[in-house]
User: Fold this.
Amino acid sequence: MSSYLDFEKPIAEIEGKIRELRHLSDSGGLNIVEEVARLQGKVDRTLRQTYARLSPWQKTLVARHALRPHCLDYVQALIEDFTPLAGDRKFGEDRAVIGGLGRFRGHSIMLIGQEKGADTESRIKHNFGMPNPEGYRKAVRLMRLAERFNLPVVTLVDTAGAYPGVGAEERGQAEAIARSIETCVDLRVPIVSVIIGEGGSGGAIALATANRILMLEHAIYSVISPEGCASILWRSAEHAQEAAEALKLTAEDLLKLGVIDEIIPEPLGGAHRKPEDAINAVGEALERALDTFRGVPGGEVRSRRRQKFLAIGQKGLG
Assistant:
């Protein structure tokens, strides 16, 4: 399966030529250093031009890229001594939600994230990152545990939305999401959320009702997926590109609206091209965000979070 998106075809062609030249060099001893350097420069220029003018729909495709780093990639790279904690103590374990204790740059934290999976087997195992009610109830349990031990909570958001199956509805999906949001609002420890890929509807905000909301440059965050919006408004998912424009789901739009607090730059060509660089950038942004809350009393932390969300949408109102 090609890792190139449709709008990256010019880049794919140039990089294909680079691979051919390197293959010829390996087999025939040709000196192709200058030509490869010229073509690589062309790749970088094309990437820069392409990614500087991505449409909201193209950003949606980048946010969903299969090679983009997922929750477990961030955990492995950034969290030391990570100890997973399972189950909601009511129904069962939901593998779409990863949670546990660990150390981030010398400080203990509670980490909760949504995991999509990296291949067919792991995607099925993690239900494509779409949590059931027990996933959100597990998140509530872990957030209260963090509060008990005065640990900051870090959440990594990457979901198309909460699982819409019949079983999930029967077990109280809406109530579980609402309870998770309520817990976030009430918590007396700092919450820092990073939208690393897709931030879909209530399935995302259940973990993103945070003191600081960070968002990767090419991630998306919206009340509904473009396809879902198009199906409702135009009765056809074929209008997804128009819906993406209307939803204001890009990091730039959401920063202007005051929904998020900071955009984390991605490597040239998106996080899927240089996952390590993207993960390091998230680590730096997380450290800065958490440092702002060290020593702040719990009541003040909670009050700031509540005021933050009450203030959203107030711009321009007389």
In short: Residues 115 and 129 are 5 Å apart (CA to CA). The chain has two domains: 6-53, 61-311. Strands lie at 79-84, 97-104, 107-114, 153-159, 191-200, 212-216, 220-222, 262-264. The first helix runs from residue 9 to 28.
